[in-house]
Amino acid sequence: MTALVRYRLTTLLLSQRYLAPLLLFTALVTVLTSNDTGPLTAAHAASGLAMLLAATWLTMALAGLDDPPHRAVLTAATGGHRRLTTGTVLAALAACLPLTALGLLLPLLVGDHSPAAADLLLGAEAQLTCACTGAAVGVLTARPVVRRQGHGLLLALALLLVLTLGKGLPPVNLLLTRLSGHHRSADLVGSTALLLALAGALLGTAAVVGQAVAVRRD
After folding, report:
1. Where exactly are the structural domains of the chain?
2. CA-CA distance, 188 to 88, in Å (whole number)?
3. Lowest pLDDT segment from 53-57, 59-63, 107-111
4. DSSP 45
5. pLDDT band at residue 54, thresholds of 50, 70 and 90?
6. Residue 156 confidence (pLDDT)
7. Cα 47 to chain center, whole Å?
């Protein structure tokens, strides 16, 4: 599995399809947290929203790297659809890890904050929650689940709107609502960990659905 994840990440780097989501993430976090002197929870909300978009884009890019003939060869070489889907998901999450570090660092550079350990832990949890959710959306809207890129993009946008704007809907809207309130980071660490677990379960379910669709279509 390690070799497969490394291969997927190397292919992504060589294709340079990571540049657009990276620039989007950096721009959003910088603009939304620039000159911010308020609580870091609001900055974590901005970083989480940026991560949601970037993770979706990265996952769709990874899943769409291969045309059908190449995907068939890769599926056979890796041992089946389940391993290929798992490798793609793990590669997407691995690509989000540097963004998580960037999302923690940028608000400190462009704003005025004195972070505590709880602030950094909460920020990491929030971004990883959004990364898992974005990866789930990406798996369900990319090939082979949705064969046409235009249709996949529209479906991804619709799902992202529901996840972010659906009032009280976990994990994303509920997370952003809590982070935007006037709370101490230490008070939100436990509840955000539960949302992270929920996002992980959502990603696992999406991966199973994506694998089932791939098996049926092939």
Report:
1. 2-217
2. 31
3. 107-111
4. H
5. very high
6. 96
7. 11
CA count, 13 A, side-chain hemisphere, 90? 14
Q: Which of 197, 71, 192 is closest to 142 using CA atoms?
A: 71
| Residue 122 structure tokens | 């909460």
Q: Give the CA count within 13 Å in the CB-facing half-sphere of 15.
A: 16
pLDDT in tens, 87-96: 999 999 999 9
Please name the residues in contact with 38: beta carbons below 8 A apart, sequence gap of 6 or more: none
Residue type, 163: L
CA distance linking residue 131 with residue 117, whole number of Å: 21
- pLDDT computed for residue 174 by the predictor: 96
Burial of 209 (0-12, 13-18, 19+ CB in 10 A): middle
Single pTM value for the model? 0.94
Question: Is a pLDDT exceeding 70 seen at residue 180?
Answer: yes
Using a 10 angstrom Cβ sphere, with 0-12 exposed, 13-18 middle and 19 or more buried, the burial of residue 146 is buried
Structure-token match 């990319």, residue found = 142
Q: Which two tokens stand for residue 166?
A: 């659906």
- Report d(CA 130, CA 56) in Å as an integer: 9
Q: Residue 18 and residue 158: Cα distance in Å, rounded? A: 22
